[in-house]
Amino acid sequence: MADISDRRSRRRAETLAEIRDIALEVMAEEGVAGLTLSAVARRLGVQPPSLYKYVPSRHALYDVLFKLGQEGYLVAVRQAAAPHEPGLAAMGASLEAGARWVMANQVLAQLLFWRPVPGFVPSPESYAPARDIHAHFTVLIRAAVRRGELHPDAASEEGLDLASALIAGLISQQLANEPDVTYEQGRFTRQVPRLPAVFAAVYPPP
User: Fold this and answer.
1) What is the pLDDT of residues 108-123, one digit of tens each?
2) Smallest Cα–Cα separation from 113: which of 143, 84, 133?
């Protein structure tokens, strides 16, 4: 019985992964808000009601994708920071890794960082990795303050908001103007390594 249960769980996970991949294809072609369960079902080769045992609604599918994207972004920024002592260097590595992730996952990034789907609100479970991302950068900025690299105000809510807005602004400009180039080629992504210095110029150490 355990083997049967394991096989069923494995098949379910494989089908869910296929549904996610197809959904991303549809969103890339039709726009993030253009996703429909009928389009996913057609490409999967099943009737729409057959999807309900995996994703009960269109917004539920968006929720699955939102969590997938936030987890991917979180892994990228954490891995980039790991070789560095917490502080500005780790912050810069995380910002660059996050920007590279966005350029490589532009469809998911739209769902994560903009509001392309009217009425969609991620569930608390799917939003949890986003809170972890915020906590990750908070730790790095506070560490930079302790190291004397930033003014203590950098770790205030206002400072954290500015740090978030700086990277979001560059990425938004990049995707709006040159979505088809590489990270290295981008007019705006090329500026990402300068962000820690920009942030430090606003919050210079005392």
Assistant:
1) 999 999 999 999 999 9
2) 133
CA-nearest of 71, 95, 93 to 81 is 93
DSSP-based helix, strand, coil % in the chain, nearest 5: 75, 0, 25
The tokens for 165 are 């807005």
Block residue for tokens 């986003």: 130
Integer angstrom CA distances of residue 177 from 115, 167, 180, 195, 201: 18, 16, 9, 20, 27
* DSSP 8-state code for residue 192: G
Judged on CB neighbours under 10 Å (0-12, 13-18, 19+), 18 is middle
Report long-range pairs for 188-191 (Cβ below 8 Å, ≥24 apart).
189/99, 189/103
Q: Compute how many other C-beta atoms are within 10 angstroms of the C-beta atom of residue 68.
A: 20
What is the distance, to the nearest Å, from the Cα of residue 107 to the centroid of all Cα atoms in its chain?
10
State pLDDT tens for residues 175-198.
999 999 999 999 999 999 999 999
Distance between CA atoms of residues 182 and 161, nearest Å = 27
The pairs formed by 81-85 with CB atoms below 8 angstroms and a separation of 24 or more are 81/136, 81/140, 85/143, 85/147
CB count, 10 Å around CB of 118? 6
Amino acid at 92: G
Q: Which residue has the tokens 């890339």?
A: 28
